[in-house]
Amino acid sequence: MVEIQSKYLDEKLDQVRAMDFLQYRSGDLPTWCPGCGYFGIMDAFYKACRQMELKHENICTVSGIGCSGRTPIFINSYGFHTLHGRSIPVASGLKLARPDLTVFAVAGDGDALGIGGGHLPHVARKNIDITFILFDNSIYGLTKGQSSSTTPYEMKTNSHPVGNPDSPLNPIRLALSYGASFVARGYAGDPEGMKEVIMEGTKHPGFSFIQILTPCVTFDKSNRTWKNLKENVHPLRMSPEADNMETAMRAAENQPFGVGVFFKDKDRRSYQDILDGLNA
């Protein structure tokens, strides 16, 4: 009887430990549409924080405007819900003022690459030690389905009912060309894979750029749907030593649904490290 009770308690303890990541979730219920990929992104984020054993008081998440702008509300830690396209500069200033904090910046494809696109090259060239997570569903969700910076050419949207006339940006190529020292991609339907990428990016000493492929279940019924993503997403096919820029650029061009780490500069100093040297 004692052995049976002991086994039962051990199983229950394992279950509690497995669910312990929920301590990073706030008491506010997410307001995203049912079926939205952002739920998977947050699941991966909570699990990454738990596995890295980050203290709540040492985490700060900064967001801009749009559906992803609500992210800090759903995290049991500090956060800023800032202005259109401004998550990166606010997160950068926060990290410079409090280098001891683990700082995340989040934004959607419209917020980050549209009005906020001018901030990406500068945080990349400075190599400020923040982790930027791009919630990329290729459309403006909160403002009701307009074309964004990553909407495919000729896709019909509420702002372009006869087809989008603009060529889409390639977020991975942008981050690589601007000199980001860590560049990766995840998929909202794979929380475990995203967790690993978020952990690796967070531990990287410098600017980490992580694009997450996710659908907009309300305003995109034809392009980036769950069905299309499930059929096309695949592990990145390239050398496991992701330190070659030419190889990364080629993969960014030829593998739009490849997930994994495209590039990581292990030797480059972070901005915080450089500042510490100047102040010594």
**Radius of gyration based on Cα positions:** 19 Å
Distance between the termini: 64 Å
**SS-derived structural category:** alpha/beta
Task: Give the low-confidence spans.
Answer: none
Main β sheet profile? 8 strands, mixed
CATH architecture: 3-Layer(aba) Sandwich
SSE series: HHEEHEHHEHEHEHEHEH
Mean of pLDDT: 90
Percentage of residues in DSSP E strands: 15-25%
Major sheet: order of its strands?
2-1-3-4-6-5-8-7
CATH fold naming: Rossmann fold
CATH class: Alpha Beta
Work out the helicity level. 25-40%
User: What is the CATH superfamily classification?
Assistant: Thiamin diphosphate (ThDP)-binding fold, Pyr/PP domains
Overall outline? globular
Number of helices: 10
Please report the total strand number as a whole number.
8
A few lines on this structure:
It contains ten helices and eight strands.
Describe this structure in words.
The protein has 280 residues and is an alpha/beta fold. It has one domain (35-279): Thiamin diphosphate (ThDP)-binding fold, Pyr/PP domains (Rossmann fold), CATH 3.40.50. Helices cover 37% and strands 15% of the residues. It contains ten helices and eight strands. The chain has an eight-stranded mixed sheet with strand order 2-1-3-4-6-5-8-7, sandwiched between helices. β7 (234-235), α9 (245-254) and β8 (258-264) form a beta-alpha-beta unit. α2 crosses α7 (191-203). The protein is globular, with a radius of gyration of 19 Å. It starts with a helix and ends with a helix. The mean pLDDT is 90.
